[in-house]
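Translate sequence into structure tokens.
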Amino acid sequence: MFTGLIEEMGSYIGHDGDRYQIGASGVLEDAKIGDSIAVNGCCVTVIDRTSEIFETEVTAETLSRTTFGLLRPGDPVNLERPVRATDRLGGHVVQGHVDAIGEVTAGPPELKVRIPADLMRYCVEKGSIAIDGVSLTVNAVTEDFLEVALIPHTLQKTKLGAFEPGQRFNVEVDLVARYVARWASTEP
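Result follows.
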């Protein structure tokens, strides 16, 4: 489980088959083989590491739901270690289970994004959403798009500050919204 508070921007180095290499520093300080790290909001497992690079395996399922397949060497990536039971939960509960790929329609700092229609039901004004792993508050919801505001800190410390129209990103809707929707649909 993650909070959506990005610890550092790393970089995508490349891949050999299903083994992807990510350049990082801070998130590797205490990382061990088998640990999880969120890369652009996608929870992956560290399978090898040095002091500046970690390697993970990316499955066909992950490639179909995330932007991993769109990465080019040198691209920045948002990185976060999992939350510990003793940590503050400053963002929102982010599982690292990416739901789909979205697209920027206008932005930043007022970022307008389009996500798949079937996920819009989980989005409400002042609710939470994770975009490339960043915990954000939804400012507006229409039939066609969501709008979120990016504060200067987020613009500087995450890759969202460089987003342009057409940019594709990983989206994870709020877990609580999913449970509420499921509960509401099964109530007599």
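Note: The chain has two domains: 8-80, 100-186.
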